[in-house]
Amino acid sequence: MNTYKLSSDFSIASQLTVVDVKQLAELGIRTLICNRPDGEATDQPTHVTIRQAAEAEGMTFHYLPTQASAIANETVDSFVAILKEASRPVVAYCRTGTRSAMLWALSEAGKQSLSAILEKTKSAQVDVSSLARRISNGGRTANAMATTHHQIVIVGAGSAGIATAASLKSREPNLDIALIDPADAHYYQPGWTMVGGGIFEAESTVRTMASVMPRGVTWIKAAVTAFDPQANAVVLDGGRVIQYDQLVVCPGLKLDWSAIKGLTETLGSNGVTSNYRYDLAPYTWKLVQELQSGKALFTQPPMPIKCAGAPQKALYLSCDHWLKNDRQAQIKTQFLNSGGVLFGVADYVPALMAYMEKYAVDLKFCHKLVAVDGPNKQATFERTDKDGNTQTVIESFDLLHVVPPQVAPDFIRSSPLVDEAGWIDVDPTTLAHRKFSNVWALGDVVNTTNAKTMAAARKQAPVVANNVLVNLGMKQHQAAYNGYGSCPLTVERGKVVLAEFLYGGKLAPTFATWFLDGRRPSRLSWFLKERILPPFYWHCMLKGREWFADTEVSQAEH
User: Fold this and answer.
1) How many whole angstroms separate alpha carbon 508 and alpha carbon 353?
2) CB 3.0-4.6 Å disulfide test: which of 112, 285, 378, 511 passes with 116?
């Protein structure tokens, strides 16, 4: 007997025996529900046998036989009615527990979010994603007329999604592409570090979504709630279904602010800020300008995060301002990194360490931020030593720059597309899904080992575009992604350490080292970061102009 909890007082189980009933009674179970029709297998105990055993133990028993392929609305209603009157805790069972989980999922429609229902059933090793549309429809049988079809569907209109759509259109202008995203605005997120450092205005980093949507692409302004790859379909909020021939998934990741106790209540006040939010980056610069003395903390959460250099960039630009305004001696600066190294590619560490020393930064590794008390200006960290032992450390602050933990979005983590860690499972070279041959993914949401940066998405988008067309029979050879990522580390106003690397941390400079050595702080790299990259993003990457992409000459095995 295998049982899995779906709530505090409801569990599902595989086929029960008389012995199992006695054990469940000893555990305090009060009600059993049988969802397996009699006679499915020769060794199957009848529901009458299990009923007699249950009643002998003082439990209530209900027989509600169900076929997974055709769960009627009336059956769901009966299940809801049983649960409403049942003595708790309850165990429902069938052959494997799947049908009971499906009934529970449908009974919870409208009470919990779809992603929450899918995540709970998935934790019980049951995939009910085929019911996503019906759950979105309040648990009722969905209207078949609400389905539309597109040749290519792209989920997510961030950097990766827009670039992929533009790359596809630049190759085959007549493609039928739908891009799904509920947002009204599109952001150039690498610019937020510069906003927090007083170099850019926040308004320069945002455009309307309509203005960046590639011509000829259908924009579906809605949120995806679930995937049904067996049916080549995605389910939107409200139950609408979009079917596809090829699916590209790139919704970015979720900034998990709530994972740090007390953080959401104090963000944007009490000296607590983050360059990871458009509305907070200006507050960072305000705090930096106003701080005359005291203690400034800058944090970095466990990997993976997008732009692993961004937590340091906030520190460097702040310290540079304080140094140039004769305030460095009056401000104690700490960098508290939950990891054990300053930067993942060792070749760039010497230059970065030199700036940590220049700014007299108290560098602390293996310190994970777990709580913030804004009114009392205290940050709580969990410090881990080399033996794995943990200790709580409390630091006071006058300025706290927080980078939150980051995970895949809820509707991704509850989907059948992910690996055990909750990231979309793709081949690291072709970016094809490992299980579903017409599904592709790129950007921050995939489980590849490259850095999660805009530069990575810039390289990945043409690869996915090419390989989607191979699947559609419009191209012959697959393109390969080599793990390229780039992080322009703004170590001071006017200088950047330009980190560029491939899978495995292999250096991959775009320019010859005699012209631009990314391992050393450079004014030329600053010029690239400040003046070249923003217009390059808006007018090249998002328009399907693939300069420096080199996807056609770098082909996967075929």
Assistant:
1) 21
2) 112
Distance CA 476, CA 539 (A): 29
More confident: 1 or 289: 289
Annotated catalytic residue, options 94, 250, 319, 487: 487
Question: What SS3 string covers 134-176?
Answer: HHHCCCCCCCHHHEEEEEEEEECCCHHHHHHHHHHHHHCCCCC
Among candidate residues 34, 307, 319, 540, the one labeled active-site is: 307
Mean pLDDT for 146-167 is 95
Alpha-carbon span 161 to 440, nearest angstrom:
11
Mean pLDDT of the chain: 94
Tell me: the pLDDT tens digits for 225-265? 999 999 999 998 877 899 999 999 999 999 999 999 999 99
Q: Tokens 């030593």: give the residue.
A: 385
Sole residue written with tokens 């140094």: 323
The conformation of residue 507, written as its DSSP 8-state character, comes to B
487 noted as active-site residue: yes
Task: Classify 329 as helix, strand or coil.
Answer: helix
Taking the C-alpha atoms of residue 557 and residue 470, their distance in angstroms, rounded to an integer, is 13
Phi, psi of 66 (to 5 degrees): -140, 140
Residue range 365-396, pLDDT digits in tens? 999 999 999 999 999 999 999 888 999 999 99
Distance CA 439, CA 446 (A): 12
Report the pLDDT value the prediction gives residue 554, as an integer from 0 to 100: 44
Q: Would you call 307 a catalytic residue per the annotation?
A: yes
Decide if 90 contacts 10 (C-beta within 8 A): yes
pLDDT digits (tens, 9 = 90+) for 454-486: 999 999 999 999 999 999 999 999 999 999 999
Question: Nearest CA to 548 among 511, 504, 495?
Answer: 511
Give tens-digit pLDDT for 100-122.
999 999 999 989 988 899 999 99
Residue type, 317: L
pLDDT score, position 552: 46
Domains, the chain:
3-136 (3.90.190.10), 149-253+408-543 (3.50.50.60), 257-405 (3.50.50.60)
Distance of alpha carbon 495 from alpha carbon 40, whole angstroms: 72
Quick one: three-class SS letters along 422-443?
Answer: CCECECCCCCEECCCCCEEECH
